[in-house]
Amino acid sequence: MRLLSLFCFVCLTVVLTVGCTSSPESEPSPSVTPSAQTPEMRQIAAVVKEIKVEILESQPTQLALQVQGEFQDGCDVPIRVEQNREDQQINIQLYRQLPENIACASVITEFEKEIRLDGQFASGTYTLDVNGEVETVTIQ
Hints:
The protein is α+β, with helices and mostly antiparallel strands. It contains two helices and eight strands; from the N terminus they run H-H-E-E-E-E-E-E-E-E. The chain is 16% helix and 46% strand.
């Protein structure tokens, strides 16, 4: 019985040792390129219904927008905001970014978003374009 136990112990040790060591002839596993893992992304622009401009009581003057709109699908993804300003013209893009391979329910999803505009605003008239919906505001 003692000899059988010793034999089993030796066999188990050999199996574990051989199974846990790597052979020098093995090739490294191929790495996966990031592009194979990252799906192509698409931008879904918001349909803007209403813009309210608020002149904040601050020095220097700042502006905030209250935007109401909708998306033509039911995906629950954060809204991205991009601002571009050239002199008195401020262009704002509201969109969501979704992988190409994602399908969403075909329902209208409404949203409200407050956007604080970058920068400071001196006296003058400014044109604000949010996804094609245009408002003007005059600062005294």
